[in-house]
Amino acid sequence: MKISLKVNGSAQSVEVEPDMPLLWVLRDVLGMMGTKYGCGIARCGACTVLVNGRAGRSCVMPVSAIKSAEITTIEGLSQNQMHTVQAAWIETQVPQCGYCQTGQIMSAVAILSQIPDPSDDDIDAGMAGNICRCGTYPRIREAIHRASKMMHKG
Amino acid sequence: MSANEVRQLNRRAFFSVVALASGGVAFGFVLPATPLSRQETFEPNAWIKITEKEISIVVGQSEMGQGVLTALPMLVAEELEVTLEQINVKQGLAKKAFFTADAGEQTTGASDSVNNFWQPLREAGARAREMLIQSAANIWSVEPSSCYAKKGIVHDRLHGRKLRYQELVSAVVRIPIPEHVKLKTAKDFQLIGTPVKRVDIPAKVLGKAAFGIDTMLPGLKIASVVHCPTVGGQLRSFSDREALLVPGVIDVLRVNSRTVAVVADNYWAARKGCDALHIDWDEGPFARLDDAALERMFVEAASQPGLVAEDHGNARKIIADAKKVHKAVYQVPYLAHATMEPQNCTVRVHADRCEVWAPTQVQTRVQKVASEITGLDPSQVIVHTPYLGGGFGRRLEVDYVEEAVRIAHKLKRPIKLIWSREDDTRNDFYRPRTYNELSAVLDSNDRLIAWSHHIVAQSIYERWAKQYLKPNGRDPSCTGGAIDSIYKMPNRYVDCVQIKTPIDVGFWRSVGNSQNAFITESFINELATAANVDPITFRLSMLKRGGRASMLLESIARHSKWGRPLPLGHAQGVAIHRAFGSLCAQVVELSIHDNIIHVHTVHCAIDCGQIVNPDTVRAQLEGGVVFALSATLYDEISIDKGGVVQGNFNDYRMLRIHESPRIHTYIEKSDKHPGGVGELGVPPLAPAVANAVFRLTGQPVRRLPIRLS
């Protein structure tokens, strides 16, 4: 079935089964490997993308349900220059193995777009859906605070 | 050279590095045009490659977040006199030069990469530097002693001339490799000991880092699998009729006696194909195995004598004769690795070679298993090591590699095998379940004079590498952390019954230390409590004054403000453990509300000898604490009806950010040979938490995960 999507500002047209989750359309059909598979049941957050600016778990989104929503993936954060959150992530040296980190970053971007100066509790609430097996949580908190400050400086 | 070519060279003369963040990492830069000469390569060893265009440092160990892709190049770069900004770091293939001395194969584990390569990589860098200096000295007709190397350039002290390493390539390849080199002392280190930013982090943050699961090849098909749900079961037959009707499914095949694969255009189709298979399993002889049966097996095995691991003094006699003996039974469960990247492997078989892309910690074993299946020589198996989305010891196994090679070899097309999370959780090589009987005697001065630890545990090395078994058959992974205690105890007896169960076991971050630190440090705490002595004071009385363990314990006591008045309902707990050549001490502070444990703060101190990158050391300790806390509070693998119960993160619970404590890390300054770091944060965490819980509840914690009623 032919399905049209808007991914990172570009129109995409794919020929896929309507129930294929967006995660696998991105990875296996569009070759965009930045969004990861961790659990397939929306429990780990590795597959997090932005859907009209809000965090969503692409592993449980049938592609036929996306319709005209604007999808942003990790690749779309830094098309012209690196996103401030990504700069903060590098400055803080957050990633260890790095596998969960694109999902973490997408969730962080979503939080900061809603709450520009989040408290630790805001961060906990917004990031609780993203598992990190390597345990980078203390640095994730620090990087989000750092990004918030960097964004305020302009 | 034509005028046009010269114009092009000048235009292309210099492009500068993109700084990715303040103080960030550059990816290397192309030099101003120099007269072109024959393309040559200076490759004095497996780690250094200098061409006219670039300086590369090659790493053979696997990057799984522990920072080896940065730390090992730092060792080379220090002596080679280059900065990390000037070089390209490359992941190497499978090669003998990358074998660790400890293992005799190419492997990444046991927290031993820096330990093993500390000397060889610095020597490699120093030799190459000396050769580059010599080659420049020859060109200038001066003595090498009047030259020096700095930041990739050889300088002529007397005449102010300089030559970049890239310009010396055709000259240096003629210089013989010097046998002896003098290495820097620590006071002259420019890189080693500094918090260099990791070379792999920018790509990981941009979503450009290729993990095993991200491998792409022309014509690649995706495979997923169904494994037998019971241990020891076998495939009888299967019907693939419905699976083949799923759009995108190409083939269905038996992989081995317990695995059926579906191959498709994409993972989703492969998975739907798997769900559409009708498989008749011979459940096998263990179809009724459950936790109750396993517990009975362990208790029954405990009645047998074990293989002796340690026997100092006369522990058993003193215990048998003592009026009062402190006794306890400790148990820990099977644990899954739960790497965030599920097991996967990509294989492309040719007539004369086999290419494998695997998130692996054991490149030599990948060559061996692919060779056995394809009939090719191991040297014809090319192993590409992408980034590992977590290792933790899971990638010391080649089961998923074997499956992928079988499928690719049979179908004669490139295949990427991806396991589902459920496959991953249920087909692991688990951290062993163990059963432990502890006994100890305190004298009239409350000094610990006799200690006995009777272990029941499965052997890992029996399957993984028999050559590591001791002469009496004892597996050191069962007793790791239970013997060679840091404490002075005049009478100690440790033995181990190596039980066999159908559950596959393997190496889980810190191996035997992961359970034996919990058991021994918790029992030490029970004894301190029985003696009514402060847990740190009790430990210090058994340690050599001024020794490394004693200093570390005093350090953590200071940093954590041990013993200070705490809010009501809060308690501190302490533990110290030695493993992989390093010491780690932790103090945790927690409270309990409604039977839920809240760990507020963890103080973590390490003495790991000389360090390469302090920021990586801190990160590994932070990570080890979080990793261990999941296991301490939540995790166990349960067996029922012959199979693993847990499947995904809904029932195998991972610690999340809102449950994660504040973690403070402290690194002891040392000039000793580097000890391990990657696994050190794990062993002390469980006993430190257990000790604090004991203080609050009055009940010793003897099983993990901690369950408060």
Q: Helix amount of chain A, in percent?
A: 25-40%
Topology of chain A as a string of helices (H) and strands (E): EEHEEEHHHHH
End-to-end C-alpha gap of chain A: 44 Å
Q: Quick one: how many beta strands of chain A?
A: 5
Strand order of the largest sheet of chain A: 2-1-5-3-4
Structural class of chain A: alpha+beta
Global mean pLDDT of chain A: 97
User: In which range does the helix fraction of chain B lie?
Assistant: 25-40%
Number of helices of chain A: 6
- Order of strands, main sheet of chain B, comes to 10-11-8-18-15-16-17
Shape of chain B: globular
How would the global form of chain A be characterised? globular
Structure, briefly:
Chain A is of the alpha+beta class and 154 residues long.
Features of the shown structure:
heterodimer; A: 154 residues; 5-stranded mixed beta sheet; 6 helices; 15% strand; B: 709 residues; alpha+beta; 19 helices; disordered N terminus
Describe the model.
The complex is a heterodimer of chains A (154) and B (709). With 154 residues, chain A is α+β, with helices and mostly antiparallel strands. Chain A is built from 6 helices and 5 strands. Chain A has helices at residues 22-29, 74-77, 84-91, 101-114, 120-127, 137-153; strands at 2-7, 10-15, 48-51, 54-57, 70-72. Chain A has a 5-stranded mixed sheet, with helices on both faces. In chain A, helix 3 crosses helix 6 and helix 4 (101-114) packs across helix 5. In chain A, 59% of the residues are buried. The model of chain A has no long low-confidence stretch (mean pLDDT 97). In chain B, a hairpin with a 2-residue loop joins strand 22 (570-579) and strand 23. The termini of chain B are far apart. Residues 1-36 of chain B have low confidence and may be disordered. The chains are: A alpha+beta (154), B alpha+beta (709). The interface between A and B is large, with 58 and 68 residues.
